[in-house]
Design brief:
Elements (H helix, E strand, L loop, with lengths): L27 E5 L14 E5 L5 H6 L21 H17 L11 E7 L5 H17 L6 E5 L13 H12 L8 E7 L22 H8 L6 E7 L7 H4 L4 E5 L18 H9 L7 H19 L7 E4 L3 H11 L15
Helix pairs in contact: 2-4, 7-8
Length: 347
Amino acid sequence: MPFPSERRGPRVAGLILAFAAGALAVLAVVHWNGRPADTQAAPAAATVVSTAPQAPAAAASSGTDDTQDEDTITDNWPADAPTPEQVMTAQPAQMRKAIAALAPRQPGHPNVYAIAFAGDGSEDVFRNEAEYLDQMMSRRFASPHHTLVLENNPASLSTRPLASWSNLEAAVDGLAGVMHPDEDILMVYVATHGGDDHSLLVDMDPLPLDQLDPDGLASILDRHAFRWKVVVVNACYSGGFVPKLRGAGTLVMTSARTDRTSFGCGADSDITYFGHAWLANALNTTPDFVDAFGKARTEIAQWETRDAVTPSEPQMDEGAGIAAQLSAWRKAVPAGAAVPFAPAKAP
């Protein structure tokens, strides 16, 4: 689905125009260098664009051959996966399938529908949180099939829609078709790396994915008149999203203030500090999102003191009316048993 450039925010430049005869794909490789191993920080100046050769002609023409020229894939692309072009081509159908699988709303009380967006495909930690949010919604909050999981990860290229700008818009459109706009609550949970310019990393190397910034996320959420929203941005410098997302009926939570990094990602990590404290610990002891945030903020501060790092200082903005609407949801849908966190398994 094409989008005017003025709606995109910071964009990944340089779509590749050189085609060999018979090629069907145009791919751009976006690689974010220089991320510290122990934080989610991503300096804005560290974005590098390079090119990737075309997919093999046989795979492109048949649409079923999973073999790939080794020069086409990167270290992060599984050898047994569909080609990058096949993954991109499959996205509309994957989104239609995911939206069709949504359960109808339960009448008579507020429902919560969620979108989990795991932006960076180079680390499993973000996919783990997206999959875990789905489990929490299904089991602890008695809302099975109320979550759309969008994720960039080598393990789920064929089983989950990509976390992309286009798919996020499609997810919002899909939920608008099943939710009651004046009663139900839209929850959006974004987990990825963040830059000090408040852009979020959206990357599944070598796919050409647009990046996301506060203006972009706000514009996507404004596509439909959702009266009640809970928006969680788990990334470095994510406090920069608060001014664009705040408003009546909206609860905004971020894992760091506007000028601070947050912690807990990296190749050796299963869950971020914020995901651990808010999702896995606090929400398993209280179903109250606001109360859980206070518990998580305290626990994160203790971990950061132990680690002798600059505090991330997670931020929260509570718009008028959202607390009462969340309370009405909790009364109608009593919380179930705690759901232990475990890293997501490969399909």
